[in-house]
Design goal:
Length: 657
Amino acid sequence: MSDTDETQLEARLADQTEFEPPESFVEQANVTDPDIYEEFEENWPDCWERAADLLDWETDHDEVLVDDDEPFYEWFVGGELNASENCVDRHLEDRGDELAIQWEGELGETRSYTYEELHREVNECAAALRDLGVGEDDIVTMYMPMVPELPIAMLACARIGAPHSVVFAGFSADALATRMNAADSEYLVTCDGYYRRGDGLDHISKANEGLEGVDHETTTVVVDRLGDDLDHELGDDQLDYDDLVADYEGESVEPVVRDAEDMLFLMYTSGTTGKPKGVKHTTGGYLSYAAWTSHSVLDVKPDDTYWCSADIGWITGHSYIVYGPLALGTTTVMYEGTPDYPDKDRMWEIVENYEVDQLYTAPTAIRAFMKWGEEYPEQHDLSSLRLLGTVGEPINPKAWKWYYKHIGNESCPIVDTWWQTETGGMMITTLPGIATMKPGSAGPPLPGIDAQVVDESGEEVAPGEAGYVTVNKPWPGMLRTLYRNDDRFINEYWEAYSDEEADEWVYFPEDGAKIDDDGYITILGRVDDVINVSGHRLGTMEIESAVVDVEGVAEAAAVGGDHDMKGEAVYTYVILEDGYEESEEMRQSIVEGVEDGIGPIARPEQVIFTPELPKTRSGKIMRRLLEDIANDDDLGNTSTLRNPDIVDDIQEKVRSD
Ligand code: PRX
């Protein structure tokens, strides 16, 4: 293309606000009939049979939805199934020799599993776990990087009816201990280490440190990923994964029949207050929903090679690396490492090598690709791509268009999918074979999803006005409760907008949004005290408690400030105890305190020492003001504060840092 053509194209793209799905995509899309929205509405909740029908059931359900104890909804009641059977066994006949998992390590080594091979290993792992004592409903924690043994262990647990609780490998030892204690989890599957930028990273020491903080007996299985690159010794209650599984070679384990409403897994996530909450997902509703959204939104077909570049340690990886794609019998790609190792074209090399059909990634990654430049994708043949997706945070139109042009070659629809750990699967996004795309806006709610944008009193806002997202009807993939904390489940998600007297239950996801005349929803971000760093959800309270645990810190406030690459970054404002002075060492120990308490992802961008925090007359920290200071925004009137003078001092400090 000549330079002038290129400039004209850029100009056209910059002005364009609406994009139609490419004809070539529509012709082959899984869902193409626009009447689906109406059909789902008219036929609700029975419309969800369509999701359940994507699975194989041992026993069919009696009722699609039971709602006599709201908001404790139950889906596909009376139905029985096994998730591992659905993700593995049922594909054996037609697709036994086809790839289920295509894994690539950071150093370039590859491992692949056909459905037949996956079946064998899942069975062996299930037999081993069962003999270790894992029974139905025992929670097995997994603290693992992106190695194939992670989905294998998840599916092995599902096979024997043991819910898993996967803790992101980047989280700290403390975070692991907190989650194992909260779930009373007596089993851990972990890994000696993994590669990052070519170096073998020790993970087992962190796991062991975490285990020291667990208040009950545990049994641990350790995957040896690093071989000679890291020597590790196993403790008394620790077994080597390969040795263990070798003892069960060729064994098969009958999948345990689970009720639709039986727990499939727990996933701990951050909220405004207190400790991370254990989001409970079920076997029937969750799996149906993950399969349905993979089919309708990601357009997954069995013959595809599909790649979601998230980490399985987050919900995106659960729903859209493991359960959704494998339930549909496709090939799911897993990559261990970073996108810029050994060079910034690593992602595009993977797309080319495996002829990836769909790529699902995060806006934070797209912003990095943009910064690195289009010369990296240009080095590779990306023509296998049919659909692109994003998740985790708002994507700005500029990044959307860059993705559309430089990765999708203007011939792939983009689905900007809004959802949460709690929703189990996608909620607001365009259907790629049907809807016009508007960069920056996620799109309308999916068929059958009654999402609205409302004001404080629950009334729908006029187009263009900012409000809050609510979901006014239940859906199969929804969380059922917070583990062992039904009260908190109600407080956190249902109290804000429900009218208990009228028996009207409304789910509040704690996101702000706008809606346009066509019903397209643009997500504005969290309205609670959750920070979204590179699409990762962190609670300000958790960060603050890690900071105040540092010796010499008297009080701390953590807020999110805008960040070009990460979306948001953590800013901490710190008051020191008498006798402690602001210093580089102090700053360092605070940063380390956060890394030890939560993990490197929560690392503060700035630590600002101050003698006071701006507070209201009633003594509440003014977080919004601290956010405005971090963003260098106009602060408006601060005279109602108890201590208005401090604001200028803090602002000065942030600016000069
Ligand atoms: O604020 C929304 C943002 O991520 C939050 C959910 O985080 P988590 O439970 O960790 O799940 C992330 C992956 C599903 C939401 O409350 N979020 C997620 N997707 C989008 C988004 N914000 C804007 N646009 C999205 N597509």
